[in-house]
Every structure is written in C-alpha cells, then in structure tokens.
Amino acid sequence: MGIVKINDQLHEDIRKASSVMVRSINAQAEYWIKVGMLAEANPDMTFTDIMREQMQQADIEVRQVIGG
C-alpha cells in the first residue's frame, strides 16, 4: 500500500462522490482509477460497455439482479 498525493479539490470531489455511492473515500478513488485505466486501455468502449464487461467477468447477470 502506498500514499498518492492529490490536490485538495480532487480529494473533496472523491469525498462527496463516496458518500453518494456509499463507498469509503479510498474505495471511491480505487473505483475511479480502475475505470480510468480501463477507459484508457479500451478507448472504443463506452462506460456502459466497460461496466457490462466487468460484470460478465465477475459472472454477474445484470438482468437477473434488476429483475429484467
């Protein structure tokens, strides 16, 4: 584990987002980092495509979860 230095405004944005998404500040930062890395590695994919692929890799059928 290491320490990442970020500016105060970004930290505040992460803090606010973490409360909305019911995640810890660290979990929210990790989520944004992971999604950003996936987006850079797959520039032709939309956010929805990336999330769908991640759910499939985790063996989660979204339609079953949401009752569709």
From TrEMBL:
InterPro entries (alphabetical): ParD-like
Domain of life from the UniProt record: Bacteria
This protein's name: ParD-like family protein
Originating species: Halomonas citrativorans
